[in-house]
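Tokens as discussed.
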């Protein structure tokens, strides 16, 4: 008879109303929630002060690699007795090869993440598999792995002649992604080389239709146009063009010097235009200032400022003459000299006497 098993001997020690079962979480234990630890609490414990929020977003299924798994079946093609014998032989060899340390071929293959496996039987494609462990018949089936990640391929440095007959060398790269593994694997012999050749031809065509100045200033437009043209053709190969990047544009020393001199002359012309506009603005402001200062009030202000400066000079005598008196004397003298023959003699005599009197007054003031 077997003795009864003591459950308490194998039960872990309980603590705080619950016990641990290895990596299994007891959701009924106190303090355990389905929401996890709040971000703010983690930040406070990490820094000991103000909360420092670190947001970690979990991986979503929609962001993972899409499934390409598809089984078309072998159909009615059985290849008769020969095909059946090969299938049976492959199954036996694969069964033995799955045993560790057995020298026979292993029927299991690994398909890495970011790739798709295409399985063919007797050379005929019949199913595609997702990443993981795949079993194939070692005698009748073959597995071809296609990379579906975004790939970077250098186009190479190309020497192109622009529309204005200038030689330039352009270095660029292309970004592409396989969207149809079947067409990329069985629809074209060398996908990468085909994309390179197509991109080089399109690059020469697009750059050759532009002037050298447009090539320098419109890199993004050129790259976008090349990507559109290549993308239309690459779509038939099961490839999507993510973009084309122009890395560098190289000119010969003569072309570089001419471009730099042209840019320098352009900057000089722009500086002259700016200086001319500044002179026009300055002349306009000076004209406005002159119009403002020509008013009687402005003249009186300037006269007072001049008198203040003269009064500060040592050993000087300053006599203040009203501005109105000076203007009256000058105006009457001009009127008397200009209209002496047209006016009546009495009025002229009175005007002259008045002018002489005011002039004598000014002279006497000046002699003081």
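Sequence:
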């Amino acid at each position: 008879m077997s003795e009864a098993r003591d459950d308490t001997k194998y039960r872990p020690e309980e603590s705080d109303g619950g016990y641990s079962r290895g990596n299994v979480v007891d959701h009924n234990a106190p303090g355990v929630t389905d929401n996890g630890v709040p971000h703010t609490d983690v930040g406070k414990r990490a820094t000991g002060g103000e909360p420092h929020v670190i947001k970690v977003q979990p991986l979503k299924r929609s962001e993972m690699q899409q499934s390409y798994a598809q089984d078309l079946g072998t159909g009615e093609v059985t290849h008769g007795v020969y095909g059946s014998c090969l299938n049976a032989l492959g199954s036996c060899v694969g069964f033995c090869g799955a045993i560790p340390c057995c020298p026979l071929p292993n029927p299991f293959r690994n398909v890495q993440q970011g790739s798709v496996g295409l399985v063919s039987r007797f050379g005929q494609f019949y199913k595609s598999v997702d990443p993981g462990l795949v079993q194939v018949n070692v005698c009748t089936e073959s597995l071809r792995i296609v990379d579906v990640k975004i790939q970077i391929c250098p186009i190479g440095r190309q020497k192109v002649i622009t529309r204005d007959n200038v030689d330039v060398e352009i270095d660029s790269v292309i970004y592409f992604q396989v969207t149809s593994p079947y067409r990329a694997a069985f629809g074209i012999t060398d996908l990468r080389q085909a994309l390179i050749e197509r991109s080089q031809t399109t690059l020469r065509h697009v750059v050759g239709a532009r002037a050298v100045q447009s090539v320098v200033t419109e890199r993004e437009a050129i790259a976008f146009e090349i990507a559109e043209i290549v993308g239309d053709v690459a779509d038939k190969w099961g490839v999507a063009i993510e973009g084309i990047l122009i890395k560098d544009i190289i000119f010969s020393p003569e072309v570089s010097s001419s471009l730099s001199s042209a840019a320098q002359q352009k900057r000089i012309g722009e500086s002259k235009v700016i200086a001319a506009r500044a002179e026009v603005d300055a002349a306009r402001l000076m004209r406005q200032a002159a119009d403002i200062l020509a008013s009687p009030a402005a003249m009186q202000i300037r006269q007072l400022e001049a008198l203040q400066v003269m009064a500060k000079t040592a050993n000087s005598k300053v006599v203040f003459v009203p501005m109105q008196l000076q203007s009256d004397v000058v105006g009457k003298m001009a009127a008397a000299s200009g209209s002496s023959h047209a006016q009546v003699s009495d009025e002229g005599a009175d005007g002259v006497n008045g002018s002489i009197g005011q002039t004598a007054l000014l002279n006497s003031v000046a002699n003081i």
